[in-house]
Structure formats: C-alpha cells, structure tokens
Amino acid sequence: MSDQKKNKRRDFIFTASYALGAVGVGAAVLPLIDQMNPDASVKALSSTEVDVSEVSLGQSITVLWRGKPVFIKRRTEEEISKARDVDLKELKDPEKDEDRAKNPEWLVMIGVCTHLGCVPLGNKGEYGGWFCPCHGSHYDTSGRIRKGPAPTNMEVPKYEFVNSNTIKIG
Amino acid sequence: MSDHEYTPKSKFGKWFNDRLPLLSLSAHLREYPTPKNLNYWWTFGGILTFCLVAQIVTGIVLAMHYVANSDLAFASVEHIMRDVNYGWLIRYFHANGSSMFFLAVYIHIFRALYYGSYKSPREVIWIIGMIIYFLMMMTAFTGYVLPWGQMSFWAATVITNLFSAMPFIGESVTNWLWGGFAVANPTLTRFYALHYLLPFLIFGLVILHIWALHVPGNNNPIGIELKKPSKDTVPFHPYIVIKDLFALLIFLIVFAFFVFYSPNLLGHPDNYIEANPMVTPSHIVPEWYLLPFYAILRSVPDKLFGVIAMFASVFVLVILPWLDTSKVKSAIFRPLYKQFYWFLLADVIILGYVGAMPAEGLYLLVARVATAYYFVHFLIVLPVLGYKEKTLDVPLSLTDPVLGGSTNEALTKGQKK
C-alpha cells in the first residue's frame, strides 16, 4: 500500500473519531443545558381564572399569571375611542385595537414593559395609557408602544371569557 | 520564570523540592525583581487579592446561614443580621466588600491606562484582567439578587431582559435563564450556585494574571522595559511586601469606615422591602460600580443597539492593546494622551452620575454626549494619537536620568529635537 493511500485512511479514521466524539460530548451537554429550561412544575401553572365582576368602569386590576403581572382593564368609552381612532401609521408596532381587545371594554395584557421587563404604571404617560418608570416608555390606552425605548406593544396573552364574569388566562 | 537556581538548605527541603518545587516557587516570589520606582498606584494588585480572599471567606460563612429559596431568602438575610453571632458584621463586610473590590479594581484599571501597562509585552495580562473584571460584574450581579429584596428582584429582571433583545432567540434565552416565564425561585437558586462558583473561577484567573505578570515583570511609572535583576530593581520581599501591606492598611481604614459607620450608604433602601413581582420601584438603579454601563445602555433609544453598545463598551477595553498605537507606554512622556486620559476619567465619572439620574431631559443629552466620547476616545483618539503625538524623550533606564545618560534612541527615533 502506498503511503499516500495509508494517510488518507488514517485521516478518515481521525475525522470519524472526532465526529463521534463531538456527538458524544453534545449528547452529554444537552441535559446539562436543558435542565435550566422551565420545568414541569412551572409549566403546570399555565392558566389562571379571574373573577372580574367587581371591576368597575375605568378600573384596572393586576393578577399574577406564570409569575408575571397581567393587567385587566375595563376601559371607558373615551379610552376605547382614543385607542381606535389612532392612525396605524403613527405606531411603532402597528396593531389594531380591535385585534388586541376582542371585547372592546376589556383589555387584557401582560403588564410587563417590552423594554427590560419592569411593570408600567397605569393612567400615566403622554398617551393616557401606561408609563414605564424604569426607562421611560409610553403606552397608549391599548397598551401599544408610542414613545420610548420599548420595541413592541405590551403582549396580549391567550385568554377567554368563561362566562360574563370570569376570564381564563392561558 | 526566575533566572537563578534555588537549592533548599535542608535535606528534607531538597527531597521535597525535587518532587514538587513549591520551595522554588516561594523563592521566586520572594526574590522576584520589581522596578524600584513603583508608586502607590501599584499597590492595588495586593489590595485586590485581599478583597477577593475576604469576599470568599465571608461569603462561605454567609452561605452557612443563607437559604436560597424565594420564600425564605429575604427572612434568612434578616436572620443573619439579627440572630447569627456577628452575622451583621460578616454581611456588612461582604456587602461593602464588593464596593471596595470594585473601587480597587477601577483604580487598578485606570493606573494601567495611565502608565500604558496593557501594551506589549503585557497584552495577555491585560486581557485576563478584563475577563476577571467581567466575571466580577457577573458575581456582583448574582450576589445582589440573593437577598431577594425589591432591588434584587428588579435588577435581576432588567439585566436578564437584556438578553431578550437578541433577535429570534431572545425569548427562549430569557426563559432558559429564568427557568420559568419570569424571575422566580428557579432563577434565585441558579444565581446562588453561580455566585458561589464564579469567585473560584476568578481566583484561578488571578493566578494566571500573576503568572503572566511574572513573565515580563511589572511595568513601572516610566514605562520602559528594565533589565532584571539590575540596579533598577529590588526584590519583592521585603520591599514591595511592606509597601503593599502599608497601602492595604490605609485601604482598610476606608473599608472599616463603610462597614462600621455607614454600612448602607452604598446600598439602596428599597432592597429592605421583600421582592414583589407586581410592583416595580419608581426609580431603579444598579449598584454604583455598574452605573457608567447603565448610562450607556439607556443613552441609546433602541433596545437592541443599547444592549450592543453596553457590551461593546467592555469589549473595547479588551482590544485596547491594539487600539493604542503609541510605542511609548507611560503618560508621563505623552503630553496629549495625558490630557485625553483625564478627559476619559471625567467622562466615565459623568456617565456614572447620569446613570444614577432619571433618563430624561438634560441628563439624557449629557449621557449621549458622554457615551459618544467614550467610544471616540478608544476607537478614534487612541489609534490616531499614536501617529500624531509628539512624545517626550524616554530615558534608557531608571538610573540614567539621575546619573546622567542618554535617552532611549529606539523610542525617540524620527523625532525632531
């Protein structure tokens, strides 16, 4: 056998061993990385039912869902029309209020600023909605970002009205 | 490492040293030739070693009483403060120790910037130092979260949310960091594990930092490479040991002032309120030593670019040895660099100040100008200065200017006198 041919076969064996070794190391590292992801007990707490019969017009309540605050706001006529009359071109993250609040009176959204995760304050800011004290993001009465460093609107979670008085989040 | 041969006197010493040359190492550390003109700015390496060891010792002791659980953590810290014998002292020492550690490291870094200690042949020392600095910030941050007060919780929220700025994978990465959908108990327990681990990584890197230092030897205020050992050097022991110890003593007076007379001055009162995921404190600020970076983050109106700017401000320091093109190390012989140096120091202090203020109006404007200068300094001023600046004559050795000698031709070549 020529030396060249021998070398090629050696190279193949080396490359194959490295590749197998890399797969082995990868398989060993995967559980070590994945253990940090949300565990079964955290995922199990995926839905919350909230009684909203006590919430009066214009009032907002905050409930905890999966460790995050959720704002449930019963909006006034004025706030609804303010949110719906906005020209979408003015928005940083264009989204119709009709899509965010199926039932216009009730706005349900995760009360976490999309910038760095602080909880915005209600009835504050230049657009009559929410204002984040940490880095100065202004949200309108639909929870859409209007001014400041936050990149997107406050997130609307999956929710449904179980009956007229109860909202199920998640 | 050392140029000389060391032979232990005793027979047992010889036997042992042949098998594990610890005695040779100890001899090297004692006789290590050190520039005789080192000033007190050079004592901070020793002070920092003390800080690290003190943090590890007090930290291990605190870990014997602390409980890393989101329901119990806050109360366990109060338990340490009220019930544990000397718990108040150990915790205040540990909490203020981090501030003292950063104070010393900033002086250490700015000393290196002034005297050009990061330049060839000391680039690796500098880079290891920057990795240590980065790990220190990680350690301080994870440690700050452990008491589970309002500031702990919201600091953890804001800082981990920085990773949500990553396109596409941001949300999965933050959920992975949290172990949930928000900062909660799984976050606390992993931060505790990391807070215990990182100081030992730092300790290992400190050994590499010192090892890398002992290859070329110390830089010095004149910034020239010395013949070692020579008339320009003194042995580390006793000369530098005594000087370091004296400096440490003075440093400990400042340290003791904070621990005993104003232990909460550098902290934030909101952290004595237990973490509440429903309410963000009206004005959240990081610890003082992270304020300049926080100011840079906030000065950029875009989320992703703000985060990039903040990480870039640390990374720019890592590549500094290649950004500064000047062959002359010490600012003593660089009249223009010296001015820019003080300008940078003022800039960083201004950044720290506006970082503590609300991000609006004039503060925001100042933060933006200061952020711009920070990057201009490293990315434009330093590279250009190396070519444009007319440096002063650098002496050939430390004794030359005293005994009357020539200047360093290699460094002053091409300059009109």
Write the layout of secondary structure elements.
The complex is a heterodimer of chains A (170) and B (417).
Chain A: H1 3-34, H2 40-44, E1 48-51, E2 60-65, E3 68-74, H3 77-84, H4 97-100, E4 106-110, E5 121-122, E6 128-132, E7 137-140, E8 145-147, E9 159-163, E10 166-169
Antiparallel strand pairs in A: 1-10, 2-3, 3-4, 5-6, 6-7, 7-8, 9-10
Chain B: H1 11-19, H2 22-31, E1 33-35, H3 44-63, H4 73-82, H5 87-115, H6 123-145, H7 150-161, H8 170-178, H9 185-214, E2 233-235, H10 236-261, H11 291-299, H12 303-318, H13 320-323, H14 335-356, H15 361-388, H16 400-403, H17 409-412
Antiparallel strand pairs in B: 1-2
Helix pairs in contact in B: 3-5, 3-9, 3-10, 4-5, 5-10, 6-7, 6-9, 11-12, 11-14, 11-15, 14-15
Overview of the molecule:
The complex is a heterodimer of chains A (170) and B (417). With 170 residues, chain A is an alpha+beta fold. Chain A has helices spanning 3-34, 40-44, 77-84, 97-100; strands at residues 48-51, 60-65, 68-74, 106-110, 121-122, 128-132, 137-140, 145-147, 159-163, 166-169. Chain A is built from four helices and ten strands; from the N terminus they run ααβββααβββββββ. In chain A, the strands form three sheets. Chain A has a four-stranded antiparallel β-sheet with strand order 5-6-7-8, with no helix packed on it. In chain A, a hairpin with a 4-residue loop joins strand 7 and strand 8 (145-147). Chain A starts with a helix and ends with a strand. Chain B contains 17 helices and two strands. Chain B has two domains: 29-284, Cytochrome Bc1 Complex, Chain C (Up-down Bundle); 298-417. Chain B has helices at residues 11-19, 22-31, 44-63, 73-82, 87-115, 123-145, 150-161, 170-178, 185-214, 236-261, 291-299, 303-318, 320-323, 335-356, 361-388, 400-403, 409-412, and strands spanning 33-35, 233-235.
